[in-house]
Design a protein that fits this description.
alpha+beta, seven-stranded antiparallel beta sheet, 2 helices, 7 strands, globular
Amino acid sequence: MGEIVGELITLFADGFLRRLHVARTRRRLAAGRPVRVPCSARSDRPGWQRAYVNGRLHITPGASVAGFGSRVLGHNELAAGGSFHEPEPDTWYSQDWAATTYRPPGGGPPVHLQVDSRYLPLVQAALTDPRSVRKG
């Protein structure tokens, strides 16, 4: 019984804390300040791994690039202004961690991103039109 209660407490605390972090991220982006969004990424690009790697997406409002940083890959840049597409169909994803495929402008191999579904609208806005995430 104690294990079930412990898991429920963790579940609700994680959801509450994640909601607070998403609200803080949204406020920082609206104020024009850089943010880091936890996510996983993979790509067939040189310097990337073909399996998902946990890291953070570094977003600066109005910048022409965003960066994905992880301990495994280091820092890799993504050109902003691309488009989002459905993830690869043969992979299973949890409901909480939405997966999407980002195609940078000018072609090149796509980058597959997995991000908490609460962050997904922010990530999509920041990468497709970096000026849209900042007020004014």
